[in-house]
Amino acid sequence: MIEIGTTQFWRATFALCLGSFMVFANVYVTQPLLPTLAAEFEISPLKASWSLTVTTLTLGLSLLFFGPLSDALGRTRLMIASMVGVVICGVALSLVTSFEQLFLLRAIQGVCLAGLPAIAIAYMGDEFHQKAVMVAVGLYISGNTIGGIGGRLIGGFVGELLGWQDVFVAMSLMSACCLAVFIYLLPPSRQFSAKPLRPKGILLDIVRHLQNPLLLLACLIGGFNFFIFINQYSYATFLLAAAPYNLSASLLGMLFLTYLSGTIGSAISGRLSLKFTQPVVIAMGTMCIMIGSLVTFIPSIMAIVVGFLINAFGFFVAHSTASSWVSRHAKSARATASSLYLVFYYLGASTGGFYLNPFWQFAGWKGIVVGSLCVLTLTFFLAVVLQCRFNKPQ
After folding, report:
1. Could you tell me the CA-to-CA distances from 391 to 214, 277, 386 in Å, in that order?
2. CB 372 within 8 A of CB 293
3. Could you tell me if 36 and 163 are in contact, meaning their C-beta atoms sit under 8 angstroms apart?
4. Which residues of 312-326 are buried (b: 16+ CB within 10 A; e: fewer)?
5. What confidence tens digit (pLDDT) does each residue in 279-294 have?
6. At what angle do helices 76-93 and 164-185 cross, to 10 degrees?
């Protein structure tokens, strides 16, 4: 088993972080472009957001396929194959001429993007010592945040300078480089034990995971937190693109630099979990999102930026911890358990925009904050319930 601080630990962790960076840069590259896409194709803000929503939706649903398949066929080959598919889709996206074509290819790309997040944490669970998993997961998810930042900055700056289609050219080149380094660094699976691919068995694994309250509660928390967090950013782009702020696409991309606090949150989540129980850490992270959302009530760019810094820190503390919790408490089929968590997570991302849209239509950004606090109160309560279940004698 790989121990904390060894050469193998850092090679594997860096490779997975780089893969995570590539995946999430591609997922979120269209987010700062939403006002641009709405104007280019003469569509509504909600429809423009489908360029992100459809990717997270197909990504989330595909996790149920990749996780069990990796339990049968192995981890590394599937991660590499899926990343190759991401590069090919990126090239095709640079050639589209209609929103319908963009929508279809982003849906296909979402399927390819599911490979690494469905398998990476299961790979860690197989190959790493238990304490190393907690630290590595936090670092790996920090790659998510950096990828989210990088993709949005590329989308904002390249989109403004060269046009939205050239954004996908830049993403394809970056993705190909990341893939080459990933293949070179990632150690082969040594602790993995394959099991036959049986659809009935997969279904039974999913049912068993859903019947385990320690897993189900963590899945609900991850889904509901992302339901709010990621869609706040989408509506914030329209808030800041309009008067009195009138920010350009490149400046909207810079809003996502607030994810840097999430990188810090992810990186320290494992350390926090060594001092507090993981449900307590999740509750603390959720409370931070609530506080940050309230700060954005103040009508100034500085307050909005500070609010999102707090949000990102709290969200990624909670997400990293919940993800690690699922990997540690799955009694079998870890990849399926990790995939199930991410299904909840990305279904939350895909549906939160529809939930928040009436709040936006009725009361603008203040409505978004009120709608957010309603859901975040629920997730805080679920974290408290998870702590109570964890302390309950088994």
Report:
1. 11, 10, 9
2. yes
3. no
4. bbbbbbbbbbbbbbb
5. 999 999 999 999 999 9
6. 160
Cis ω on the peptide bond leading into residue 196 (within 30° of 0)? no
DSSP 186-214: PPPPSS-------HHHHHHHHHHHHH-HH
Q: Spell out the alpha helix ranges (H) of 194-277.
A: 199-211, 213-241, 249-255, 259-275
Tokens 């997969």, residue located:
202
Domains of the chain (ranges; CATH) run 7-186+199-391 (1.20.1250.20)
Q: Which two tokens stand for residue 347?
A: 């279904």
Torsion of CA 117, 264, 169, 347, to 10 degrees: 40
Among candidates 105, 362, 365, 113, which has minimal Cα distance to 231?
Answer: 365
- Mean pLDDT within 29-47: 89
What pLDDT does 391 receive? Answer: 67
Q: How far apart, in Å, are the Cα atoms of 90 and each of 7, 26, 225, 295?
A: 33, 8, 29, 37
* Spatial CA neighbour of 186 closest among 373, 331, 19, 3: 19
Average pLDDT for 353-379: 95
pLDDT digits (tens, 9 = 90+) for 121-136: 888 888 888 778 878 8
Cα Rg of the chain, angstroms: 20
Angle (CA) 339-341-342 rounded to 5° is 65
pTM of the predicted structure, to 2 decimals: 0.80
Of 10-14, 81-85, 298-302, 335-339, the one with minimum mean pLDDT is 335-339
Cβ 168 vs Cβ 94: under 8 Å: yes
Residue 287, Ramachandran bin (φ over 0: left; ψ between -120 and 50: alpha; else beta): alpha
